[in-house]
Amino acid sequence: MDGLIQQKVQRFEEFVDRRLKPDLVHAIAERDKVFEQQEVFSNLRRNIENLEKNSVTSLQTMVNLGSEVYMQAEVPDTQRIFVDIGLGFHVEFTWSEALKYISIKEESLANQIQEYTRLIASIKAQIKIVCEGIRELLQLPAER
């Protein structure tokens, strides 16, 4: 009987280690990516609002050319901006259009974060259930 219990415990532990834990790590990493996107759009919103508030019509900035190589650039008209909408595509927006797009995108990102958070909670619950099953198989006292 002990051999059968040991086999079951081993299968449960393998399931946690090979399936649930990698799924949890992946879900957390994906949620973190969405948090980073959310921060980018939040910063863009703040920058546009500052441009509007301060009535900035032109500005000088540094542009990343790639490989962390920068050059100075002058933007003669700040009334229209290009926003990265994903997959390498950029769309030219007015400030108000950009703010509307950002609001929609932020709502979408918030929904994605909620979904990943639910998934993470579900995986953690599954891990806890499996650990509880192992505890019962080994007839260990419940944790408080």
Widest β-sheet, arrangement of strands = 1-2
The tally of beta strands, per DSSP, is 4
Radius of gyration: 25 Å
Distance, first to last CA: 28 Å
Coarse morphology:
elongated
Largest β sheet strand count, sense and barrel closure:
2 strands, antiparallel
Helix-residue proportion: 55-70%
What does this structure look like?
- The protein is of the alpha+beta class and 144 residues long.
- Helices cover 66% and strands 19% of the residues.
- It contains two helices and four strands.
- 3% of the residues are buried.
- The model has no long low-confidence stretch (mean pLDDT 92).
Element layout with pairings:
Layout: H1 2-53, E1 59-66, E2 69-75, E3 80-86, E4 89-94, H2 95-137
Antiparallel strand pairs: 1-2, 3-4
Helix pairs in contact: 1-2
Task: Provide a short characterization of the protein structure.
Helices cover 66% and strands 19% of the residues. It is α+β, with helices and mostly antiparallel strands.
Provide key terms for this protein.
144 residues; two-stranded antiparallel ribbon; 2 helices; two-stranded antiparallel sheet; alpha+beta; 66% helix; elongated; single chain
